[in-house]
Write the structure tokens for this entry.
Amino acid sequence: MTQADDAFAPWDPTDGGRSLFEWESRYGPSARKGIAIEALYVIVMLIASAVLIFLVWLGTPRGWLRLDPERYVVLSRFAYAGLGGVFGASLIDLKWLYHFVARGRWHLDRRLWRLCVPLIGGGLAVTFFTLVRAGGYGMIQPRITDSGYWVLALGILVGLFSDSALAKLAEVAEALFGGTKHTPSASSESPPSAEAPESER
């Protein structure tokens, strides 16, 4: 595989060697059905998270839960972070879906990854927001999270770049708990070298 083929969006206007006016799908009926189901799921997650963000902004959940203003502010910040993470992760999930479909690299083994991406993005965003709010992430001041707009933007960014967010959280965890040192035994064999797995962002 060339470097251009392995890039996020390689410049290939032919989508893998298509000729002019070759418009029919190369996927069979079963594959097209699977692609449609995955696309529908990701689009529903994208739209649902946007609608829920709007409802939180309107204050609708406050009436449902009968919360006082102070408690609702706390709830709304967590909701903005989590829903923003789902929204951002759904965006990148949708982009990767059509990218793989167009390049002929879609297959069923990636389905679990695609289904989990929005949920992972939401969970990471809440974790990151909690860490910032508690003052555990020195690069961002906790007072910035007083703004709902800023929290929403943080959540979306964490969802879009979940791998980078995980790397930062790993750095914080290592600083708190220390690194783990593995001491191989004398009888253990040296592990064979392995190639890095293909990126699935």
Summary: Residues 28-177 form one domain. Residues 145 and 151 are 6 Å apart (CA to CA). The chain has one domain: 28-177.
